[in-house]
């Protein structure tokens, strides 16, 4: 990777994600111009749109609560919030380097958040969060990807520490046991996918709507404030924002119809929606962080810490 490209990627986690959407026309923020309806049309919904049974939606809502920990502890620990941001930024750079899917990215962050919410980190071992990030990304790639790099090659992007393969494997086992082997959780993408499969739209419109939701999701999950929202709430807020940004003539009607099919009140989604708006308004593209030379952490130190 050229040094100039690396410098650009390190400036913003959002810019890193652009590599996932190559060969696409620049249509403005989230791929559309303000007030334009040329892509999605005056309405993204069709008449009698949601006429199938709601069993799957009920199952998704039930399953998301089983895995959701109400991970507010991340927001109460300032040092952990910083470690999380660095870990997520690093995972996204690796995802971009290897061309992993968006699902892999979301799963890796999900595993990391659930793990750090359950596992008590030791403050005198600052390398612990980075090792957890490597393990969570490795596990997510094993779930979703068809071609995987070696564990040492997975650490292709610069970080403070470098870990041996045996250390990563031990952490993988710890993550698996801590998460009780529940590696297929409901994520916001699960809810978005459910809605799209119930949309009677042409294929290219479904893909465009999904692309915009994915990009916004990947941007906001770098912020630990969104961890406390259920996947269905975050997905709903993201879809509401995408609908508004697309600019159909009846955006409000489309938003209300979406909330109706999801059986979700606007009040329940409003806080998350406002946070998304605030996040996008305050996030800057230049966010450079120094990444010092990596330190090799001995397997003995790691074994003693995670045993």
Kindly list the characteristics that best describe this protein.
Cyclin A, domain 1; 307 residues; disordered N terminus; two-stranded parallel ribbon; mainly alpha; Cyclin-like_sf; single chain; 58% helix; 2 strands; Cyclin-like_dom
What does this structure look like?
There is one protein chain. Helices cover 58% and strands 1% of the residues. With 307 residues, the protein is mostly helical. It folds into two domains: 29-56 and 185-282, Cyclin A, domain 1, CATH 1.10.472; 71-184 and 291-306, Cyclin A, domain 1 (Orthogonal Bundle), CATH 1.10.472.10. The protein has a two-stranded parallel ribbon with strand order 1-2. It is globular and about 55 Å long.
Number of strands: 2
CATH superfamily of the largest domain: Cyclin-like
- Tell me about the biggest sheet? 2 strands, parallel
Estimate the helix proportion, in percent. 55-70%
SSE string, helices as H and strands as E: HHHHHHHEHHHHHHEH
N/C terminus separation: 37 Å
Question: What's this, in brief?
Answer:
Helices cover 58% and strands 1% of the residues. By secondary structure, it is mainly α. Helix 6 crosses helix 7 (128-144), helix 7 (128-144) crosses helix 8 (165-178) and helix 10 (203-220) packs across helix 11.
């Amino acid at each position: 990777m050229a040094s100039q490209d690396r410098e650009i990627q390190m400036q913003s986690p959002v810019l890193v994600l652009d590599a996932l959407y190559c060969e696409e026309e620049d249509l403005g923020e989230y791929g559309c111009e303000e007030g334009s309806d040329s892509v999605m049309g005056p309405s993204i919904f069709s008449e009698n749109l949601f006429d199938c049974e709601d069993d799957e939606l009920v199952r998704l809502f039930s399953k998301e609560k089983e895995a959701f920990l109400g991970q507010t502890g991340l927001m109460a620990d300032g040092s952990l919030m910083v470690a999380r941001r660095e870990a997520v930024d690093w995972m996204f750079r690796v995802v971009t380097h290897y061309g992993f899917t968006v699902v892999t990215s979301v799963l890796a962050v999900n595993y990391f958040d659930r793990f750090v919410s359950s596992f008590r980190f030791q403050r005198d071992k600052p390398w612990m969060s980075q090792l957890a990030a490597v393990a969570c990304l490795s596990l997510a790639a094993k779930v979703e990807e068809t071609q995987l790099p070696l564990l040492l090659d997975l650490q292709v992007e610069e970080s403070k520490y470098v870990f041996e393969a045996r250390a990563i494997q031990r952490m993988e086992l710890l993550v698996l046991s801590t998460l009780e082997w529940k590696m297929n959780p409901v994520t916001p993408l699960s809810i978005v996918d459910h809605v799209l499969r119930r949309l009677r739209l042409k294929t290219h419109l479904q893909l465009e709507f999904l692309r915009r939701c994915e990009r916004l999701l990947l941007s906001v999950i770098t912020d630990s404030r969104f961890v406390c929202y259920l996947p269905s709430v975050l997905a709903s807020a993201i879809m509401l924002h995408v609908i508004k940004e697309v600019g159909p003539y009846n955006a409000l009607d489309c938003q209300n119809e979406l909330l109706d099919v999801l059986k979700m009140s606007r009040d329940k989604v409003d806080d998350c929606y406002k946070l998304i708006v605030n996040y996008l308004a305050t996030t800057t593209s230049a966010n450079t962080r120094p990444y010092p030379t990596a330190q090799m952490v001995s397997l003995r130190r790691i074994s003693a810490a995670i045993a």
